[in-house]
C-alpha cells in the first residue's frame, strides 16, 4: 500500500485543522495497512503538521510585521510628542495582546518617570517614578537590554522598592516585559507591556516589542526635534517682534529727539513740545505746574481726571516716572527743583502689553527735560524783564522819573503803554522774600504790569484795571508763595506816568495807607481800598491830607510827647479804649490813677477845656486813629 501524500497536501492547501490530519492515518489503519506502511503514513502526517505550523508561524509573523510596519508608518505621520507616545503604547498593547502597556521617559535629574499609559486603572501607578537600577524598568534603562518576568513581585532578579512594588500590586500586574528606547547608545526611555495573570512573554514577543521600540525611539526623537524646532521658531518670532518693536522704538526716539532739538534751536515753546510728544507717542500730553494748573495740553478741551492728578502727584513725590496701564506722569525737574510735571494720557493706538516701554518712557522723560529747559529759559527771560520793569517802577515810585521821551522809549522796549491808567497795589506777603519777589514778577509780567519790592512790601501796578480787581489778582497770584494770608492795599486807577508823572506816586501812597489801615483794623488777608474804609477812606484818599488833620486836632499833644518823652498820646488811647474810666485806664497802663489824672490835666492845658465835649471828642479819637495809621 502506498502512502497517500496527496491527501496531506490537499489538507495543507485547504488550511485544515490539526485534527483533520488524523483522517489519512485512520483510513490506512482501517484499510489494513502494514506496520511499515502505517509508520510511513504517520511520518508523512508529522511532516505535514510541521509544514502547517511553519506556514502558520510565517503567517503570524507576516501579520506582526505588517502591523509593525503599519505602526511605524503611523508613528512617522505623527508630529506631536504626546500623540506619538500615546500611539506607541496603544500599538504595543495591540501587538502583544497584553492587558496594559506603558512608557517611561528618562529624567536626568529625577530618574525615569511615567509619561503615558494604556489600560492602567490606578493613579498611583501612573505617578510612579522608577530610579535607575531599581525594578525591571530601572534594570532595562541601566543595562540597555530587554527584560521580562512571568511574575514580577516574587522575581528576585530585580531590586525591589516598596513604592514600586505597591503600585504594581495595586494595579494587579503579574507578568511584565520591558525594552529600551535607544537612540544610538543613549536610552531615552523604556517601553513596557504587562498582564494581570502569570503569562510569560516569549522571545517572539520580546523581538516584536524591541522592533516597535526601535521605531518608537526614532518617532519620539523626531517629535522632540519638531517640538524644539517649533519652540525655536516661536521664540524666533517673538524675538523678531521684539526687534521690530525695538526698531520702532528707536525710530520713535530718533524722531522725538529731532523734533525736540528743532524746538529748542528754533525757539519753540512748551506748547510745541507737548504737540510733538503727543504725535510721536500717539497719546494726550499735558504739562502741569506744581499747583496742578495746566500750562500746556495737546487736548485743551479735556480736563485732567482725579486719577491722572493722583498719578501726577505720585510722580512728584517720588521724583521719577510713575503710573501704570495707559496713564503715566514724570516730573519736570531742573536739578533738584521741581517745576511741574508732564502727564501722558491714554494712547490713541492700543499697545500689546498696554504698559509704557523703556523707549517711550525715555522719550517722555527727555521731553520733560526739554520742558524744564524751556520753563527755566522763560523764567530767566521773565526775571530779566521783571528786573527791568522793577527798576522802572522803582524810579517812578522814587519820583526820579526820566523825561517823557526817554520814558516812552523804555515803555516801547518793554512793550508797555505808559500812557494808560494804572491800578496800584501794595501787598504785605509773609514768607521767603526771593520767592515772593519771583511770584510778583510773574504775576505782573503775565498781565502786562510792573512789580518791585520796596521797604519790605511788594508793589505792583496793572494797566486798565480797577483797584479791587488788581488787588484780588495779586492775592491769588501770591497765595502759593506766601506763608500766611496776603493783605493788600489798592488804589486807582490813576493816570499813567506819561500822562501824569507823579500820579503813580500818589496812588502808591494811597495804597500804602490802605494797607496800613487794613493791618491796624485787623483785616489781614483782605483787599482794602479807600472806598472800603468809609470816612476814614476819604481822609486816606488821594485828595485827603490826614497828616494835616492829625496836626490840627492833636498836634500840641504829639509835639509835647516828642519834646518831653511823655506818654500823653498813649494815655489818650487807653482812656478812650476804657470808655473814659480812670481806674481801668490806670490798670491798662500799669500806673496809678493819680498819674492818669495828672496826664489828662496836661492834655486839657494843651488842647483846651472843651476837648472832651462830644464833637471835639470824636475829632480827637479820629485824629488818634489816623495818627496810628500814618505814623
From TrEMBL:
Superkingdom of source: Bacteria
GAF domain sequence ranges: 80-230
InterPro entries: CdaR-like_regulators, CdaR_GGDEF, GAF, GAF-like_dom_sf, PucR_C-HTH_dom, PucR_C-HTH_sf
Keyword annotations from UniProtKB, A to Z: Coiled coil
Gene3D superfamilies: 3.30.450.40, PucR C-terminal helix-turn-helix domain
Coiled-coil intervals, chain numbering: 226-253
Family statement: Belongs to the CdaR family.
Protein name: GAF domain-containing protein
Organism for this UniProt entry: Nocardioides turkmenicus
